[in-house]
Amino acid sequence: MTDHPINPIPHKQIAPGLQFLILTGLLIGLLILGSIIGIAFIGAKYGLNALTDILQSKLTVPHADTILWILQFTGTTFPILVTPIIFSYFIVGEPEDYMKNHFHFPWALIVIVLLAMVAAMPLIEYLGNLNAKMVLPKFLKSVEDWMKESEKETEKLSDEMMQMNTFSDMIYNLLFIGLLTAIVEEILFRGCFQTIFFRWTSNMHAAIWITAIIFSAFHMEFYGFLPRMVLGLLFGYFTAWSGSIWPAIWAHFVNNGTIVVLTYLSQQKLTSFDFTQPQVFTNGGYIISFVLTLLLLLIYWYISSKWHAAHNGEELD
């Protein structure tokens, strides 16, 4: 199987280990700066008391949802968007290699990605159910209690932001949570971080796995670590084999967008399906999900490899 194509290290490139430290430091710095800007804006417009109440999960204050969206955009989304742009254009000077935002890939992959994401849903659900049963050793009970409490607080804030009263609310969430989040996170993780780890390890699979682990850890949702890591693996292979970030963005959007649409339908009583409750499939269903996902990944690899071989004059292994 040919490991598709991440370009070799160019002459006089910054060492990958140093690149990782620079990118991580830049990300942390911009996250802090963005949070400060958001807090200052909210304090000036709505008052610090409103901000304090929100941070204490008192969501009955006026404009709670607006304040949460401001914090989300200034403290997370915008910094994640700006970080890879600054890094790829002004630090390493290789935006195409690190952002991979070109469209040079076979468009049949878009269909394969959609099918793979649908096929993987039972498998992702199984991993989520398994992860939810995680129990730490007794001597780490205080850590486990903190993790559970943190998860509950995060869920409360997420539920508030996902409250959709109108169709336009659903479209807004679909664009912001579904599309924009997919774009910024994929360019940062599968674009910059994955490229750095490939150049550091010279192993595509190691780069994908390390990036997926960091991607999942970044979200700080302890009881959703496994399913998010596996999603990160799918996004990683979609990027590495196609050479473009867009199939991974599409996959990320399908995942997030499905959650937004199902949440809206549930809130409007347009479906009796409650995706917030664990869905249990038969063992056969989980096996079929795994086999279909693996098969579609192999098809994705094969189409990508043939397409790149035809365009680069290479032989397909």
Give an overview in words.
- With 317 residues, the protein is mainly α.
- Helices cover 75% and strands 0% of the residues.
- It is built from eleven helices and no strands.
Annotation field: number of helices: 11
Q: Sum up the overall morphology in one term.
A: globular
- The fraction of residues assigned to DSSP E strands is under 5%
Number of strands: 0
**Series of secondary-structure elements, N-terminal to C-terminal:** HHHHHHHHHHH
Mean pLDDT: 89
Please outline the major beta sheet: none
Gyration radius, rounded: 21 Å
User: Which structural class should the secondary elements be placed in?
Assistant: mainly alpha
Helix content: over 70%
What is this structure's SSE topology?
Blueprint: H1 16-46, H2 48-55, H3 64-91, H4 95-99, H5 108-132, H6 141-161, H7 167-201, H8 204-218, H9 225-242, H10 246-267, H11 283-312
Features of this protein?
317 residues, 11 helices, single chain, mainly alpha, disordered N terminus
Structure described in brief:
The chain has 317 residues and is mainly α. It has eleven helices and no strands. The protein has helices at residues 16-46, 48-55, 64-91, 95-99, 108-132, 141-161, 167-201, 204-218, 225-242, 246-267, 283-312.
